[in-house]
Amino acid sequence: MNYQHKYTDGTRIHFPVGKVVCVGRNYAEHAKELNNPVPTEPLLFIKPGSCVVSSEGGFAIPQNRGAVHYEIEIAVIIGKPLSTKPSEEEVIDAISGFAPALDLTLREVQDGLKAKGLPWELAKSFDGACVLAPFIHRGVVKDINQLGVRLTINGEVKQEGSSADMLNPIVPLIQHMAGHFRLLPGDVILTGTPAGVGKLVAQDQLLMELVNYSSAETYVLG
Fold it and tell me: Which residues form the Fumarylacetoacetase-like C-terminal domain (predicted)?
């Protein structure tokens, strides 16, 4: 299966659907709002490529499985293989683009799994659990360490943050990931969410933004 990435300048690229590599608690304030300890090293987990959907045309959320929480994140799409211990230059060269993304979470399911010391896949990897907006080319972004992300729902700003606030900045984070497992073209990195997560309901209207670079309107079906 292929997933089409449509850059905001109108160009399109096609990659096989890869894995979605995520980092938890990469913003200290988000960790605090969920009463979680701030990790001393990146807390990684992986979503399958099958959970990825486009923001275009709206997206569905699970029914009768408890609260579905939104988490806005800066997404990075990888365009070249990375493995072992890549240099900063190799990581930057392998980055193809950036986009705002939603990491959706079944929060009550996740809380139950965490209480039992179990993995989070049931809460994080359902169909539609990663909503991707169109990517912008990496060359458009002036400074990836000052890249803002914002989520507005029904006209109200719910989340806003910057890569400058990350506990693990984008390039060192990707270096850490590639040190544990190979990253391939089409893999997507979700870099963590700022504070302000909350519940989605049917017909919510969302605006996902990379501040000063791109935006995508979407909505919850139903």
Answer: 19-202
Output helix, strand, coil percentages for the chain, rounded to the nearest 5: 20, 35, 40
CB 168 within 8 Å of CB 153 = no
Q: Express each pLDDT in 46-61 by its tens digit.
A: 999 999 999 999 999 9
pTM (whole model) above 0.85: yes
Would you kindly state where each structural domain of the chain is located, as residue ranges? 19-220
Is pLDDT of 154 > 70?
Answer: yes
Task: Read off the tokens for 41.
Answer: 């090293």
Q: Is 198 exposed, middle or buried (0-12, 13-18, 19+ CB in 10 A)?
A: middle
Helix/strand/coil for 189: strand
pLDDT bin (cut points 50, 70, 90) of residue 7 is low
Which amino acid makes up residue 137? Answer: H
- Asked if 109 and 115 count as a contact pair (C-beta separation under 8 A), the reply is no
CATH class of 19-220: alpha beta
Look at phi and psi of residue 203 and say left if phi exceeds 0, alpha if psi is from -120 to 50, else beta.
Answer: left
